[in-house]
Amino acid sequence: MAVALGPSGWWQRWRRRLSAREVSRMLLLLLLLGSGQGPRQVGAGQTFEYLKREHSLSKPYQGVGTSSSSLWNLMGNAMVMTQYIRLTPDMQSKQGALWNRVPCFLRDWELQVHFRIHGQGKKNLHGDGLAIWYTKDRMQPGPVFGNMDKFVGLGVFVDTYPNEEKQQEAQKRRYSPGVQRVFPYISAMVNNGSLSYDHERDGRPTELGGCTAIVRNLHYDTFLVIRYVKRHLTIMMDIDGKHEWRDCIEVPGVRLPRGYYFGTSSITGDLSDNHDVISLKLFELTVERTPEEEKLHRDVFLPSVDNMKLPEMTAPLPPLSGLALFLIVFFSLVFSVFAIVIGIILYNKWQDQSRKRFY
């Protein structure tokens, strides 16, 4: 005679057939499926990505504020809206920034930025653009798209105003076809703290590469992705409304330390635009490395780019303490007195020898 088992009896009977390891694996799989944070394979080969919530930001923008408990901090004129975070409004002389409070210690990562730049200005009467940062210092206002100059780390710039071109026009000069850039323009820069961003030339002397990106006043979403894998920096964009990534910058041999901060900033001057950030999503990428790559890809302590000479930074000497200054002065006086005494003794001996020779 068949006996029907209740829900608890069925579970007890089925569980006896499973090992403890199999049960733990099934529970982990159910947890990943339920949370939606399971690994997702990207590209060719064994590369998987995991969303890192502590470095990501999306609607409804929880954890954004000025307190020390917030994961993201606002600075300047930046403000939280319902559908976006506005770094700067379409007004003159404004600057704002948004910075992650948690340092990133990931080895390989990908940052996807959903942004929008729009305003009332007509062609070449708008500015200045926005920047995405991975730097040692955070919350430091300055002239480089709202951030400090001579930064340490990586900066990716979405520049909407051609300063160099306007200066050339004012001087009645013309670019050669192979030199002129079409704006808006995306460029990247790695800095060890020794280089200044050249505003008059739109960062041309220090850029790693760049591409034209028509991103203003579009009626569809615009995205930028920064991928750092095996010291290979890749920047792509999706600005055509086709949901396809298009290559912009690719640079091998980029060495970025771990423990830096992600952020984004913007600034306006005489010209202005609305600079909005809709989301920032950081993914940890897991990639396989050979033993040789493990040796080559050791942690670094200062940003650099292979085959690109950056001026070396000289650390400033620490100020002397009161005790150290006292000891230096004291021993200097003792040495001076000692030298004077020795000098007097030698002089007296010389005089005695001179008298003996005279007699």
Automatic annotation (TrEMBL):
Signal sequence extent: 1-44
Membrane topology: Single-pass type I membrane protein; Single-pass membrane protein
Gene3D superfamilies documented for this protein: 2.60.120.200
BP term (GO), one: protein transport
Cellular component, GO annotation: COPII-coated ER to Golgi transport vesicle; endoplasmic reticulum membrane; endoplasmic reticulum-Golgi intermediate compartment; Golgi membrane
Domain of life: Eukaryota
Transmembrane stretches, start-end: 323-347
Record InterPro entries: ConA-like_dom_sf, Intracellular_Lectin-GPT, Lectin_leg
KW Acetylation (keyword) present: no
Subcellular location: Endomembrane system; Golgi apparatus membrane
Protein name: VIP36-like protein
